[in-house]
Write a structure and sequence with these properties.
372 residues; alpha/beta; seven-stranded parallel sheet; two-stranded antiparallel sheet; 44% helix; binds coproporphyrinogen III
């Protein structure tokens, strides 16, 4: 693979990914994919979880009067919304506009995404008979997803597209609770009360998630992220006994695609190594654990992604700038670093602040790497 040409000036480093000076402009050789593989990069790549969404007026405009689930199944909207933050912020990657519950709806689970609430499931899954309603996902269930990915890859040029899916535990939580949950009590009751049913449920969810990731990877996504947003509610022992193998199974379904796999959860400081060992190429870190601590905990075995506290985007610029510089600095010690937030962009975030953060990350991380 060719090396990077020298990128020194802040203006060049801050240019949109599609126009930055690269030796070979392909997504597979982008800063994001190279960092995810632990290779040298011209600058630290940056993207934001939930970069597409309510923080952008242009998002609110195109979503006007269209339900969330419907908008996820319309290639015209999916492509437009996915591209919006790339155009506006010059981020180093697009994240596919969808939701973790889209594949569940695609296999016939009756659910809705309620504004301000999240996914709500009409009939929670708690018994063997309930599980029988959950069938496997076939590519034929989501031809629109394949089409949207292909359209986006053509549109994005050298900018990589990140595909994603929810991990079995987080999906199970929505299915078992019937919606968002503070304590995940029904989920944990099932996990401990009927471990066999729990394992069968998670095994099926792993196949659904793996299949959803595969559709995105096979149609051209350059990286794939598994979101286990609520895994931080588990002890290490429960993660090992009841969850890890199922996330590993989902990740294994795309292991042959030569696409880096990112594994992220919220409040997972105690689980970082276990999440890496589930089969990730990059471990996502939320803002509760510093990258320095995360690096120590994971023994430098994986590139890291993270980890600016999304609430800091509301702080005065001087305080925010200091923190961004610290994170870039901490990230230099990792085998690779993808700058991101510690969780998703909050809806009231000023989008101009996000753009400034992208410029700052590019500027302070620009490195001189001679072409090989
Ligand atoms: O920009 C991106 O990151 C891509 C799009 C994306 C969405 N959901 C769009 C969305 C991604 C990656 C997700 C994943 C997702 N969905 C997760 C994992 C990531 C995380 O945040 O932990 C989870 C837990 C969900 C479930 C979900 N869907 C929640 C909690 C919500 C928010 C509910 C609300 O209104 O506050 C959703 C809805 C959702 N998914 C929105 C977006 C842009 C908001 C819907 C809207 O704009 O009307």
């Amino acid at each position: 693979m060719g090396g990077w040409v020298t990128v020194t000036t802040p203006s060049a480093a801050a240019a949109p990914a599609t126009t930055s000076a690269t030796a070979s402009a392909s997504p597979a050789d982008s800063a994001l994919v190279r960092a995810a593989r632990g290779l040298d990069v011209p600058h630290t790549p940056v993207w934001f979880m939930r970069q597409a969404g309510r923080s952008l007026p242009e998002y609110r405009a195109v979503r006007e009067g269209v339900g969330m689930l419907e908008s996820c199944r319309r290639p015209d909207l999916v492509t437009e919304i996915t591209l919006q933050p790339v155009r506006r912020h010059g981020v180093d990657a697009a994240i596919f506009f969808s939701d973790i519950v889209v594949p569940l709806a695609a296999v016939g689970i009756d659910l809705d995404i309620v504004p301000g609430v999240g996914p709500v499931v009409a009939d929670p899954v708690r018994t063997r008979a309930d599980l029988d309603r959950l069938r496997d996902l076939a590519p034929e269930d989501v031809p629109d997803i394949a089409e949207s990915v292909r359209l986006l890859v053509a549109e994005l040029g050298p900018t990589p597209l990140i595909g994603f899916a929810g991990a079995p535990f987080t999906l199970a939580s929505y299915l078992v609770e019937g919606g968002p949950s503070k304590n995940h009590e029904h989920t944990k009751a099932l996990m401990h009360g009927d471990p066999q049913l729990w394992h069968d449920l998670c095994a099926r969810l792993a196949r659904i998630s793996g299949a959803f990731l595969r559709v995105q990877g096979e149609n051209g996504a350059s990286a794939l992220q598994l979101f286990d947003s609520w895994a931080g509610f588990l002890s290490r022992a429960d993660y090992v006994r009841h969850v890890q193998e199922h996330s590993a199974a989902a990740l294994a379904m795309v292991a042959d695609l030569d696409v880096p796999r990112i594994h992220f959860g919220v409040g997972t400081g105690e689980l970082l190594t276990l999440m890496g060992e589930a089969g990730a190429d990059v471990v996502g870190v939320d803002y509760r654990v510093s990258l320095t601590d995360a690096l120590e905990r994971t023994g430098g075995r994986w590139p890291l992604q993270g980890n600016l506290d999304p609430a800091l985007l509301f702080a005065p610029w001087e305080a925010l700038e200091r923190r961004v510089r610290e994170i870039v600095e901490e990230g230099r010690a990792a085998p690779g670093h993808v700058f991101n937030l510690g969780h998703g962009v909050l809806p009231d975030t000023d989008p101009d602040v996000l753009t400034r953060v992208v410029e700052l990350v590019h500027e302070v991380s620009a490195r001189q790497v001679s072409a090989r």
